[in-house]
Write a structure and sequence with these properties.
By secondary structure, the chain is α+β, with helices and mostly antiparallel strands. The chain is built from 2 helices and 4 strands. The model has no long low-confidence stretch (mean pLDDT 92). Bound molecules: zinc ion. Zinc ion binds next to helix 2.
């Protein structure tokens, strides 16, 4: 376990070895959560705006949707 100091602006540097092991590159987003006395950092994955599914997600006008929800939405429209 490595100790890191928090910068004046609240930042920390994720150690290079950890970044390599988790395929994190400059510009990648991470999600930060807390649980009890732990701070949990995970690689960000786009989730469906409707069902929160993180698989097979596409982006449309700044929002992410999974293909299943897109199919359901398409079914609501009758021509
Ligand atoms: Zn969905």
């Amino acid at each position: 376990m490595k100790s890191k100091k928090i910068t004046k602006s609240g930042g920390i540097t994720i150690p290079a070895e950890v970044r390599r092991n988790h395929n994190l590159f400059p510009g990648d987003a991470v999600d930060i959560d807390s649980s009890g006395n732990q701070i949990i950092i995970t690689a960000h994955m786009d989730r469906c705006f409707i069902c929160q599914n993180e698989h097979d997600v596409v982006n449309y006008q700044g929002k992410s949707f999974c293909r299943e929800c897109i199919k359901e939405l398409g079914g609501l429209i009758s021509e």
